[in-house]
Each structure stands twice: as structure tokens, then as C-alpha cells.
Amino acid sequence: MDKSFEASNFIEEIIIKDLQDGRFNYVQTRFPPEPNGYLHIGHAKAIVINFEIAKKFGGKCNLRFDDTNPTKENIDYINAIIDDVKWLGYDFGDKVYYASDYFDEMYELAKKLIEKGKAYVCNQSPEEIRQSRGTLTQPGIESPYRNRSVKENLDLFEKMKNGEFKEGECVLRAKIDMSHPNLNMRDPVMYRIIKTPHHRTKDKWCIYPTYDWAHGLEDSIEKVTHSLCTLEFEDHRILYDWFLDELGVFHPRQIEFARLNLTYTVLSKRKLLHLVENGYVNGWDDPRMPTIKGLKRRGFTRDSIVDFIKTIGVTKSNSIVDYALLEHCARQDLNKKAKRAMVVQDPIKLIIENYPDDKVEYLEAVNNPEDESYGKRLVSFSKELFIERNDFAIDPPKGFYRLKVGQEVRLVFAYYVVCTGYETDENGNVVTVRCTYDPNSKGGWSLDARKVKGTIHWVNAKDYLDVELRIYDKLFLKENPEETEEEKDFTSNLNPNSLVIKLAKAEKSLLEAKDFENFQFLRLGYFCKDPDSTKNHLIFNKTVDLKDSYSKILKKS
């Protein structure tokens, strides 16, 4: 294997050294989600790191489900996770791996530890085990069952497997050191009794391995070379190594990196589940959720998410990333890929007094000025148009370059118009603006090349679509809503205006929009067609504004 690689982060430095020293002669990673919920942007970071590192070193990355707790897992989560990894653009080959594939082997290896006098069956209750564990300053207290004979432990462990004990009646524990300074080494639980059918093994097992016991074995069996975990598993690495060393099996190297923390967002599965189950959001794929499915539905592209993960990099210290960076990456990608369209979200009428009453013409509009391959489309134009309410002012402030009486503006893709007057309703609200147009300025340019500072978008009032715009904002008002563990405090920071629905007027070309297709609605922002749309009810979710505050930060840094 070619070992002449250049490291771009500390994980790659370790891998290169392992290859040079001969510890491994290949690279294999894995992404090991628990199928007990939907993946979120934090999981996306782990996906990108594991798959990209494997790709860089010519290796492979396994998708493996850590399905060791049947009380919280189901096939819907598994299918959703597989779909998300594929959507992000990563290939895990023809095989999906499962911890449950190795239950028989794990059971035999547990017996091997018992035979070495390194594991025992304990009849203490979960609460007694917790209380006897000790603290960081006080050693733990040994279980009264710790010194059972090997023969007794093997017999009891088999009875556990055969379902002869009730849930919580006993567990299998590793026999290590109850005074160890690392609490994870104080006789951790390896197996517990759970009499719940498993989604794959059905009723075959009633004992299930804990994460600490199963994870290292899964890595070892699959011959993973580098087990990449987030920092919360750093204190567990000593136990990971202990199990593998005691068993004398293939020993991967565990390396920890900082998890992703995002402003105005929670990434705790428990809290996300709380939001879903209590109706604060409309399911796991709600566009306000930080789940991959929610981000996709909101209009974030796979490339923007991967670019975001690569931009924040791989570090060893925890930090909070500004949500604005994720939005910046979305804008950068969507600017190149999104088709343009005209939508008016707060409409008032614009009547062109000198335009023929019954005339309708079709004007060329550019689909994407960043890429000519997107071509052009035709948009209809007539005497009556819809424009944005804030594009006209009776008494405008200084520097207002849109419509006011006597001022000329450019109608994008169409003509120059000069405002001649307006009409209001009984409450003084403007309902109609009147103007005249220059027929020699078709296409938004004039034969006399006069300069016009204002350009506004429009929709033909005689040929349009009614569409629903879902305007999303941050789900939380507080920059770090995860500062507290209390649900009541955490939900008290929810933004009451995180979703605002507006009915808008749109050009007819949007009838051809596909589900999840991205658009830039001129001057309004980037939007994505929602899959709940019907032929008679088109819905578009706002992804991000056009304004990019984070780009200024990047330029300064």
C-alpha cells in the first residue's frame, strides 16, 4: 500500500504513522449508528469523516448497526439511516453489517472471559450496582457475588441465556478493579436480560450485550483498523482496549474527535424525540429539525452538508459552530445549482396604463446566470402584474430606488416602467400602483442606455399560480439551548415564529418543479419544493435568505 500520504488532520497523522510503523497495512473504518432514531447533522459529521478517510487511504467503510437494545430499535430507523447515508453520496458496498450478526460469537467470547476469571454473574440490582460503583474520589465496593467460581458463573450465564431469570435479576459483569480511577473500569456490565423480541433475531436471545462490550468486538470481527468515535467515548477507550487485550483478538485503534455542536440547535436524540412526541415539530423530517431528512426537506443539498463538515474540520476539542456557516455553505452551493423563478409573497397590483389591454407576450428569462447550461424559460407578461408591496412607497426614505411616483425602475427580464400614481383601500393601504412602460426597453434594457438603479421582480396577474411559502427560522431563540438538561427550560426557548406560512403568487413554470428541487426565488431567497405538494397545492420551503452574513466573517478571518 502507498504510504506517501499527506495528513490534513490529527486522525490522518495517526493513521499515516500506523501504516509507516506496520501496525496496519490497510485502512478500514466504520459508521456504527444505533437504530433508535433518525440521523442528524452531528451524525453527518461522523459519516463524512469515516467515509472520506477510508476513501483517502484506499480503504473501505462499513455501515454497521449497533442493534443491541431491542426495546428502542425498529426497522423504520434502519431503512431511514441507510437512505440518509446513500443520499449523502457514500457507498458502503453490497453488505450492511449488524451487531446482531455477532451475538453468537460475542456469547462465546464472554464465556472465554468467565473461564479466565475475568467476568462473573452478579445478582445486585441496577440501583445497587450504581451505588456501589463509587465516585471520582471514592473507590467502589466489590459485589458480594464477585468471587463466584468459574463453574458457577458459566452455569448461571447459560441460565441467563436460556431465559431462566427475570429482567433485572442478574447481569454479567467484567471483573477488573473496583478502585480504578476510571469509573468505566469498575466491573462494568457486559450483558443484561431484556425479554423483548429483536427485529432481526426475534426470540432467540433474551440477553443483550452492552455498548462497551459489543463495540470493540464488532470492530475486531470486521477487522476495522481505526475506530473513530466522538470525545464522549475517550474515557471508554481504556475498557475497549482491556476487553480486546484480555481476549487476544484483532485490536483496532480507537481515536476520538470532537462532536458537532451547532448554535440554536439541539442534537440530543432524547431532546429531538421529545420535540417530535410532544408536537413541537411535525415529525422527524420537519424542516426545522437538524435531522438529515429535515435538512433535505428544507432544501439543503448533500454537497452543502458535506462541504460544511469539511469546512469545520476535524479537531480534538469541543466547540460550538455558528449555524450561519451551514447556511453559507448552502448558499454557495445553491447559487451554482438552483434554478431561478419569480414569486411575489406580499402582492399588490401593478397596472401598466399604456400596455394593450388584451396583449400577452412571453419574455425570455435566464434559469441560472451562473451556468448557461440551465438555459432559458419563457414567462408571460401582460398589462396587470403582481409586485411586492414593499417595492412601492408613498413617502420613501432617502436612497429608496424602487417604485415611487415619478421614479423609473426596471422590471426584471421585461421593461422599464415609470410610476404615475397609486390607489388605496378604505384603510389607506396601497392596493394598486399605476405606471407607464417604455416599449423600446424589452428585455430590461433601453435603447438610450439610461441608467436605472432599481430592479424589481413581478408575476403576471392574468397567468399565475397560487403557492404556499413556508418561511422557516431558527427553532430556538437561545444560542445554546442545550445548556440545561431540564425539558421545561429547553422547550421554553423555542422560537414561536420558527414557521410562518405565506400565500404567494408565482410564475407558471413552477408547475414543472420536482419534489425537493431547489430554486432561487428572485430577491426572496432559496426555496425547495415540499414533497407534500399536490398539483393544486404547491408548497415551497424556504432554505436560506440571499443575504450571507457569514461570508463577511470568513473574509476577515
Q: How would you describe what is shown here?
A:
- It is a single chain.
- This protein is α/β, with parallel strands linked by helices.
- The protein has 3 domains: 10-257, Rossmann fold (3-Layer(aba) Sandwich), CATH 3.40.50.620; 262-339 and 467-556, Glutamyl-tRNA Synthetase, domain 2 (Orthogonal Bundle), CATH 1.10.1160.10; 343-457, Ribosomal Protein L25, Chain P (Beta Barrel), CATH 2.40.240.
- It is 27% helix and 23% strand.
- The protein contains 14 helices and 27 strands.
- Helix 11 packs across helix 12 (323-337).
Task: Give a short synopsis of this structure.
Helices cover 27% and strands 23% of the residues. It has 557 residues and is α/β, with parallel strands linked by helices.
Q: Provide the spatial order of strands within the biggest beta sheet.
A: 12-25-26-27-23-24-13
Q: What is the level-2 CATH architecture name of the largest domain?
A: 3-Layer(aba) Sandwich
Total of DSSP H or I helical runs spanning 4+ residues: 14
How many β-strand stretches?
27
Instruction: Tell me the Rg in angstroms.
Output: 31 Å
Which class of the largest domain in CATH terms? Alpha Beta
User: How many domains in all?
Assistant: 3
Taking all residues together, what is the mean pLDDT? Answer: 94
Q: Termini separation (Å)?
A: 38 Å
Q: Percentage of helical residues?
A: 25-40%
Q: Label the overall shape.
A: elongated
Q: Look up the CATH topology of the largest domain.
A: Rossmann fold
Largest sheet data: 7 strands, mixed
Low-confidence stretches: none
Strand coverage percent: 15-25%
Structural class: alpha/beta
The CATH homologous superfamily of the largest domain: HUPs
